[in-house]
Write a structure and sequence with these properties.
Layout (H helix, E strand, L loop, with lengths): L1 H24 L5 E5 L6 H17 L3 E5 L6 H9 L6 E6 L1 H8 L11 E17 L7 H10 L5 E4 L5 H13 L4 E4 L3 H9 L5 E5 H9 L3 E6 L25 E9 L4 H15 L2 H9 L3 E2 L4 H21 L6
Parallel strand pairs: 1-2, 1-3, 5-6, 5-7
Antiparallel strand pairs: 3-9, 4-7, 4-8, 4-9, 4-10
Length: 322
């Protein structure tokens, strides 16, 4: 019995020593940060300034690799197959918590194939529309939709994206009919919006705001519980007659399951420091982002809560897993 206990102790000690050694040598080559949507979208706008500071903090290049498509599942699948050494990580969006409710089968397990690193930031959505859309307020939008069922279309950054489910939630909340038109990312969706190919979009405020300021799009409402400081005169959907409607986009970092805790903690520390550099925080705040920087454990709880929330919303909207 003593021999068994001694062996177990020696094994645990060896594993701890290996973990410490890995953490001390981490990172020893460039880090690949997977982005599940195309360049120019809200994830890209967040990742670029943070990655510059992250390189300084970790002492290695941070390479942004864009793997768009399938609601973010292509990039997420790549992460699930990656070596769990911290050198391949993923900027995950709210779609990560939505996808288990949209797909009958995913090429990974949302709960067990990943190691949460940190919730990085949140971002409200903007109900944006081309100037040709015959509504300037939520009240007018709902009224027009009820008089012209099926005529309005709303773009999204892809099936399962927050912009998609926010639209479905809005349809369910207001009892109106709109056609969903998915695109491969926020940038092409905004291009379609500018061209008047679609009636509106529940888009990240960071990508639509410049077009609103330039007068090429109009801001109908924001989806957060409170008005945005960037558009203080634009009401929330909540205060426009729908008190239960509130949606925020969010962004976090995942590593593959099995990544040593010491490396997860080192990544968490690095992202926290990088995102809180004053110049980075000010730049991101100016685009509507709120820096969060959570612990790995808090981010895991956040993901689980989001999965439950979107499961409820999907059922209320009558969305069936495909």
């Amino acid at each position: 019995m003593k021999a068994v206990l001694a062996l177990r102790y020696a094994t645990a000690t060896l594993l701890l020593a290996c973990s410490v050694a890995q953490a001390q040598s981490f990172p020893n080559h460039p880090i690949k940060l997977l982005i599940p949507y195309p360049p120019g979208g809200s994830a890209d706008m967040l990742a670029r300034p943070i990655s510059v500071e992250l390189q300084k903090e970790l002492g290695q290049p941070v390479i942004l690799e864009y793997k768009a498509g399938a609601g973010g599942t292509i990039a997420t699948s790549q992460l699930a197959r990656a070596k769990p050494d911290g050198h391949t990580i993923l900027m995950v969006l709210a779609a990560h918590a939505i996808n288990p409710n949209l797909y009958k089968s995913l090429p990974y397990d949302t709960h067990s194939d990943f190691a949460p690193v940190s919730l990085v930031a949140t971002l409200p959505l903007l109900v944006a529309a081309p100037n040709t859309t015959p509504a300037d307020t939520i009240e007018e939008l709902v009224s027009y939709a009820r008089k012209n069922p099926g005529e309005l279309t709303f773009a999204s950054a892809g099936n399962g994206n927050t912009s998609h489910l926010a639209g479905e939630m809005f349809k369910s909340t207001t009892s109106i009919d709109m056609l969903h038109v998915p695109y491969k990312g926020s940038s092409p969706a905004v291009v379609a919006l500018l061209a008047g190919d679609v009636s509106l979009m529940f888009d990240s405020i960071s990508t639509s705001l410049p077009q609103v300021k330039a007068g090429r799009l109009k801001a109908i409402a924001v989806t957060s519980s409170e008005r945005s400081a960037l558009l203080p005169d634009v009401p929330t959907v909540k205060e426009s007659g729908y008190p239960d409607f509130a949606v925020n986009g969010w962004y976090g970092i995942l590593a593959p399951a099995g990544t040593p805790k010491t490396i997860v903690d080192r990544l968490n520390e690095a992202f926290t420091k990088a995102s809180n550099v004053p110049s980075v925080t000010n730049l991101l705040n100016a685009s509507g982002y709120s820096i969060v920087a959570s612990t790995p454990e808090a981010f895991a709880d956040h993901i689980n809560n989001e999965i439950n929330t979107w499961q409820r919303i999907s059922k209320e909207a009558g969305i069936q897993p495909q």
